[in-house]
Amino acid sequence: MFLITRKNPLKRTAKLKHNLNTVRCFSERLTSPEVDINFNNGRSLKISTGQYARLADGCAVATLGDTSVMVTAVSKTKASPSNFLPLVVDYRQKSAAAGRIPTNFFRRELGPSEREILTSRLIDRSLRPLFPEHFNYDTQVVCNMLAVDSVNNPDVISINAASAALALSDIPWNGPVGAVRLGFIDNEVIINPTRKELQSSSLNLVLSATKRNLVVMLEGNANSIFQQDLQKAIKLGTKETQHVISGIEALQKAFGKQKRELVPVTEASEEVNEAVRSLCEMRVRKIFTDYTHDKLSRDNALSDVRTDVVEKMKANFPDLDPNLLNETYNKIVKQIFRDLIFEEEKRCDGRLYDELRNIECKVNLYKPLHGSAMFQRGQTQVFCTVTLDSHESAMRMDPMAMLISGVKEKNFFLHYEFPPFATKETGRIGPIGRREIGHGALAEKGLTPSIPDDFPFTIRLTSEVLESNGSSSMASVCGGTLALMDAGVPITAPAAGVAIGLVTRYDQERKNIEDYRLLTDLLGIEDYMGDMDFKIAGTKKGITALQADIKIPGLPLKIVMEAIQKATDAKHKIFQIMHECIDKPRTIKKDNWPVSEKLEVEPHKRSKLIGMGGMNLKKLFAETGVQVSPLDDNTFEIFAPNQSAMDEAQEFINKLLTAERVPELEFGGIYSANIVEIRDIGVMVTLYPGMPPALLHNSQLDQRKVAHPSALDLQVGQEIQVKYFGRDPVSGLMRLSRKVLQAPPK
User: Fold this and answer.
1) I need a labelling partner for 589 at 20 to 30 A (CA). Which of 36, 208, 223, 731 fits?
2) What is the sign of the dihedral through the CA atoms of 500, 505, 511 and 514?
3) What is the mean pLDDT of residues 298-323?
4) Strand 635-640 to strand 627-630: parallel, antiparallel, or no bridges (unpaired)?
5) Mean pLDDT score of the chain
6) Same domain for 147 and 295?
7) Global pTM?
8) Residue 593 in 3-state DSSP?
């Protein structure tokens, strides 16, 4: 249900009939229209426009609970010379929106965090498929958080606000889209769950869809959710997005701008098209049906054909624009590639639609590493390593990430690297890029449910792509599982991943798919020339992570369900191959594995262990590399890089705690105490050699009231008699008294 109103409904301006509800519009100067969208679970999303950022092409504010996000869309009116869509999505988390001050040195927002980059990619994939073909105008979508309530996550709200901003603007766009977050608790699908609900949910899935229940984007993680439960959630989520779409459409109809006319794209004449096709079609077909080609030889062969075609076309058409010629050639090659998949019932490498590439696995590659693995699938190769360290090495989250996600630190994280040599290219190796962050986060989601909660170490898993010909992130899931088992991490279940591709025959006029083929274990060229890259990871039990990168304006649910089924079938085949390499976590310890133990220390001995200013612990770390960290008042955790270091550390600690034999003191016993220091509040005494000085307070020095020890002529080195009353149960300090040994004053 939704309702568009103004704050002071003085005059009715329009009455619109909609397939879901009746929309009422009221107008008043300087107030903003608003649409209320009610989901089936009773939660409400509000979208408004016209109040902020009026100079932008489009602006919308979306609110769920007390979380509000403003999104603006601006596009240049002059086309860019590029032949791709120059769309940039910038999502920024503002500390002020949460009532916080940034904790960095400058106390202001700096560069985008990892979470901001991942959310920007999430929004981008929801919007990009719906831009018109050949739209090459620089477009920027900026998402600003106005308020955050730490209950509702802003990312889904931002997708809906961005959809509304583009729909209301004059930017050509075939939207709107609607987005929802899906949880799964007690066999029930939850729409837009709160942060607290997500902690007990086995699913965290963001779904974007457009009209007619067409899925545009999927991304999420799960705790090995069953396939049928995931499919149930996707169906319900797609249905719920239709409420959002209907509300935005009503808002657009009432207050949206008229879409600007696009300048027609210059295309090659029919004569040029036929000339290029006649010069290259047979040769390109021969390349794509020569199944002996690999990635490099196929690319080189196509490049040779391109060079020959360009030279011959220049001779016949000297005035032809080289860029237009290259674009025409690329278009023809892509069409031939797609047609052959339907005609030959095979792919360019000779595989059937459901066939996997050859897989090779190796573990325990280098002795100094805690765990290592190499996973090769066709010409995609990843090298994974596992490093185990103490809890002190856990990744601390920034304050905004903690507020939104509820996670304070991570003891398992995956870092993904994609150097340029992996695709036989040169380039700068520097700070990690957005693509690497996105692929690493997806692989991490696929493996996280397998990591035990009570594992005593922090785990850093690295995945370096050494060769790439498609689906390196899913290869990282497979290689990461092998490396974790090689490192002896007691994972609950192995995980594997695979990418499913799609090639369609799409009717541009009717906006529907006439025919399609799903491709298991996607090649790089199939991703580039195809319509979908659907990555799915999971265990034998169920699915742990998924991400759909869709290039056409939406997929029917039938295709989405088929893709999930094909990924599940392929996953079981991959497990069989992985289990031949290593079938369970290693139980025989490696010499270089770290060791962790807990140490109980009596309260009065803590100072001996720690030393002045932590001197003893610092010395222990410098000499042995062993870290000692307090867990609570009496318990310490000892982390050693290996067993020999642990043995050395235990010897060092035992020496500290038992340096001198401590005599057993009898409760109520009388002992001779040696004064070692005189203070204003009392005297410091020792009862035996090597004992840490204990305080004998002024109140316990004499039967008379004593303001200072000097009143009794006490001196350093003097011996006095004291009575021992045990130790304080909280502080562990000795309780001593001298006055109880004296007669009461007369």
Assistant:
1) 223
2) negative
3) 91
4) antiparallel
5) 88
6) no
7) 0.83
8) coil
